[in-house]
Structures are given as structure tokens and as C-alpha cells.
Amino acid sequence: MTPAVYQSDPDAPSDDEYAAGELGHLIIGNRGRLLDPRRTPVHVVAVDPDIGFFTVEIDAFEDAGAHWRVPLEQVSHYQFVRDSTRADTATTQALAAAAARHDLTISIDPGPSLQATGRARLAAARHEAASWLTRHLGRAGFDPGPQITSRAGSPDLQGLLIDYLDTRGLAGMERRLSETFVSNPGSGDLVRAHFIAIAELGLGSYRGPPLRDPAVTSGEWSRPRRAAHIVARAGFTQALWQRARRPLPPLYRGMSHQGQLEQRTATLVSATFAPEIAQAHFDTSRREVGVLYRRELPLDRLFMTFIETQAMNQRYREAEAVLFGARQTPI
After folding, report:
1. Considering 51, 81, 102, which residue would you say is the last residue of a domain?
2. Based on the domain organization, do 57 and 138 belong to the same domain?
3. pLDDT at residue 79, rounded to an integer
4. In principle, which of 8, 202, 257, 288 could form an S-S bond with 38, CB 3.0–4.6 Å?
């Protein structure tokens, strides 16, 4: 038998043993699980109505021990043990008011001029990174085939990425951002602030909640530093993959949805070089419709890949590539 790509619990209790998640369940210590296909178990560790998040700790599978910050209004994405402690009426009403206050949507859709400026800035960063790589590697290329087969990146190239970003004072940002992205890009505002910065650079569009936590754009996480990281990071990844042996490997993506597929442009799109990963996403869904996609590797849209990203080689082995989103394109 082919080993499972992702961990799961074949003896997980049925949904009948749980109650649908409500704001009243948000009591520290309450146990529940995410309504994903494998019903990831969690428990509540914090509730912060001032910025509209509650925090869960993951209790099993690859992300065990990770903390995710979840918008209050997404408590319905969870279910809780039926005999859980419930918040009193006043507390529940206060949480409902906080959820309503923060449940907003903004759109950033850069025009042609800003898009051209962003592409020019990225092209300059790609050229700069290519020159840096030539100084450190000579003109040698690399064969990504063995890494794709093993779904394990290159420690040497991961070290080079950190060295490159460290020359710009961005290595710490890279480590924390990539770790959060791999675990859960929707956890809090850390990655979301990067999504907004990508749109402000003209490298993508954004539609989603506004930022709730002021700390994510202050100090070392300021908007200019985030923009510098995005451009330098993407420039390095694209320059690196320009050295890859031809023909370039294709990308795959497995998706599932309820009813008609909505073609919405994401700021960043995750795909994989490994068809078995896309197949696993396709196979494990409990949703109505599943779709598999394949396409050529779009070098000019690369933001990060598992080859040079250490965080993509720790808890998960998904042979992942992350791309700037493109209109009406699932990969």
C-alpha cells in the first residue's frame, strides 16, 4: 500500500459527538476540532476580542503544538465537545459585538501603472540576485528532479537564501513568515499583511479582511520592510530557478469546492511539483466537487519553493511552490 501523504486518525469520533462551534465555546481549555477533512483536534488557549481573534493550539498531526490565531467570526469553522464549558451571556454578547466590528472586507486591485512598476522592481531584484548567486555558485545549475522525487529541498540552497536575505537585514522576517505560512497562512495578521503589501507593490490583488493587529506593520515589520522582503525573496527564488535544468518540471494543484467553482484571484497560490500531493488534496476532500490542475512552471510568478525554503521541509513534505496570483488562473 502507498503510505498516506498526510497524518490522520482513522478512529476519530463522529461529528455526532461534537457541537457546532459558537462564540460561547471560546473558553480557554475547551477542546474541539477544525472542520477540515481529517478533523484536526485543537484546544482554546487565548481569546482577544480587542483585535478580534481567538487562539487554538493544534493537538495532533504534523502541526501539533502550533498556535493559530483565528478570527472570532470563524468559530463556525470548528466544532467542540458537547459538554464543553460555555461563556455566560454577557461574555458571549461582547464577543458577538467584537466579531461584528471586525468582520469587514477590503479590496486592493492595482492598476496597469502600479503593476508595471512592480514588475520592473521585481526584474531588478531578480537581476541583482542572479549576480549574487553567480558570485557564490559560479554558473553551475541544479537538477530539481531528485528533490522533487524525495519531496525534500536543498539545505545548501536554503542556507544561501538566508545568507542573501541576511545581507539586507531580512533573514529573521523570512524565518518567521515562512514558518507561519507553511503552518497556516490565515493565522492572525502576520501573513495577511504580506498579502496586502504584495497588492500595494502591484504584484497581485487582495480581497479579504483588513488588518486587525497594529503590531504587524510596526518596527521591523513595517510596510517598507515587508515590501523589501517580498521583492528580494521573489527575486532570489526566480533567479535560482532560472538555473534549473531544462525542461522545467510542471506544477500540480488539487482543489475541492461546493457547487460551482468560483474563479477568484488569490494573492498567493500554493501548488506542488509532486502529483501525489495534488492527488491527496483531491482524494481527501469531503466536498462536492474535486478538480486536478497541471501547468508549466511560471518562473516570473514564483515567490517561494520548497527547494530553498527550510520551513517547507520540516513538518510537511509537500514539494510546494508559492506563486503570485494571476487572474482567472487556478495555478
Report:
1. 102
2. no
3. 98
4. 8
